[in-house]
Amino acid sequence: MSGVMGEFGLVPKERSKLPVLCAAGLGLVTLLFSWLQDSDKFSERAGMIAFCITIAAFIYSMCLFAEEWLFHSRQRYHGRINEIFKACFRKHVVLGMCAVFLMLTLGGVSFSREQWSTMALMCAVYLLLKSLGVLNLAPVEISEICEMKKMNVAHGLAWSFYIGYLKFVIPDLQNKVNQYSATRGNLSSPRLHILLPLNAKVPTKPEEEDTNVVFHENLPELVRDQAGVRKRSYKNSVYKITQDNKTFSCVLEYATPLLTLYQMSHESRAGFGERERKQQVLLFYRTLSQILEDSLECRNRYRLILLNDEHTGDPHYLSREIIQHLKQQDGEIHMDPIQELPNEVHPVLEEGPIGHFNGVQRATFPEVSMSSEPTLMFSQPNSLRSEPVETTDYFNQSNARK
Description:
Blueprint: H1 18-37, H2 42-71, H3 73-77, H4 81-88, H5 91-105, H6 113-131, H7 139-148, H8 153-184, E1 192-197, E2 213-218, E3 222-226, E4 229-234, E5 237-243, E6 246-254, H9 257-264, H10 274-294, E7 302-307, H11 317-330, H12 359-364, H13 393-401
Parallel strand pairs: 1-6, 1-7
Antiparallel strand pairs: 2-5, 3-4, 5-6
Helix pairs in contact: 2-4, 2-5, 2-6, 8-10
């Protein structure tokens, strides 16, 4: 699981529908204001504006269709016109044009020459604003679409890190830790601790960041055939962390995909600045946390440690953060399998003295064996008004003796 010390103040949450709700509310208020100003021509003017916007959006979609059909039909769509149509025309634009067509043909709607001129002018203004980029999506809208469609660099790196490494390393880690503990001693935590620096700067050795973090030794290797490589070896390292003359030990490593983000931010061709890099690191953290938490094989076997790069003048920041996470894990409650208590009440025996039916007395006579096969005992149906009648075997046998 991921840590909770300060991460929630850094990791961005998923965006809500607040902008849509606000826009819808303001639109309704504006419509009400317009209706109050001129209720007689409100319907006519509103219909004409919706008519113009729909036609302008359809014309712009036609321009997109022309580009894709003339220059990209074979390379991107394998010559399939229906795929090009789906890529260029949104559903609400098509539905709007169908409504406009029905209005003009079956609805008997007609416009004057002045109205047609006004609508043509509105369409022209819309197309010009669209071509100049005035009506393009805002950066936050693009970011929301990329997050929703899982199109960010961080999404790909997080899934690659999980499928190509963590998915089979973390489930096998418990066996490696047990082998290590049998000969070297217990670790402070059996989980895999993954460090994620916010600045994406991944050092070769943790000792370069903090002298209190020292490499101890590697766990037993995991060997498997992977991507055409026979007997590929995967290693996990154990580190000793010291603080106030106390020593802790755990399996520790950096998230290697962050090194890719760091190197991309230093390549001008990638178009990846420092601000974008930080956002991608946070998104990587959030995505990887969700992936691992949804994985039954990895849940509760890992620890994500997000390292804030704003610390200055603290040479032991890394060891302090790791130990803080280790101490936090000591306070976590782990649910153990339910075990049978020694004085637990056992099922009722088929035969025997009545004293053996009571749970307390049953515990004082452990020599009485239990029936190996349970027997269902039914009573005869009685009227709701009748008095209760004892029908147990023991009661009937007692009356027979009498």
